[in-house]
Amino acid sequence: MEVELEAKKHWEHVYESKPSDAVSWYQPHALRSLDLIRRVAPSLGARVLDVGAGASTLVDDLLDAGMTQLSVLDISASALRVARERLGARAGQVRWIEGDITTVPLEPGSVDVWHDRAVFHFLTEPAERAAYVAQVRRAVRPGGHVIVAAFGPDGPLQCSGLPVVRYAPGELHAQFGEAFELVEHQSEDHRTPSGAIQHFVYCLCVVH
Fold it and tell me: What is the mean pLDDT of residues 36-44?
């Protein structure tokens, strides 16, 4: 619990002290994520959970695409507030969940598409990763899809002052186990607002 409180304190400070478009992971539009979600979502009513979304604009673009069952989860209340304020009246169309992804209660089989860009690589302890994977297995229905993006082998060693774990595609998939079939993987060179390049690996899996 102490670790969770420290993590929350860290991310609240980040979003209270920086504009949302100044953090290193900011994207004006999360086009790769949007494409993957649209490709695997069975319908516009698919239940999509964006994990560790922060103040990402992905939810805006998913709403623009006509998707109707969106949930946004983050440990930082400040980040969620930024996103809600940006959406205005449309924020009422989204389910907002404040909590740590390793411990927050999630209903079994309640997710069709699980999306995580840049959360998993912050889980540096095996127990944290095991708790995360257990959450995915519980929440995503059989036949549902999981999209996880993390720093690749050439990515940074730290982000937002915190250590991270870097993964090759096979290494990232291996964290999830045989219940997750790797459908494809992609690479992305993300340009941060300061102009640095960060290498990401995306893995798309289907849950059996």
Answer: 97
Strand-pair partners of 201: 150, 187
User: What beta strand segments (E) does the chain contain?
Assistant: 47-51, 69-74, 94-98, 111-117, 140-151, 158-159, 162-163, 180-191, 197-207
Query: Are 23 and 86 a contacting pair, CB within 8 Å?
Result: no
Domains of the chain: 2-207 (3.40.50.150)
Name the residue among 174, 183, 117 with its Cα closest to residue 150.
Answer: 117
Q: Are strands 140-151 and 197-207 parallel, antiparallel or unpaired?
A: antiparallel
Q: What percent of the chain has pLDDT over 90?
A: 88
Q: What is the pLDDT of residue 20?
A: 87
Q: Please count the residues of the chain.
A: 208
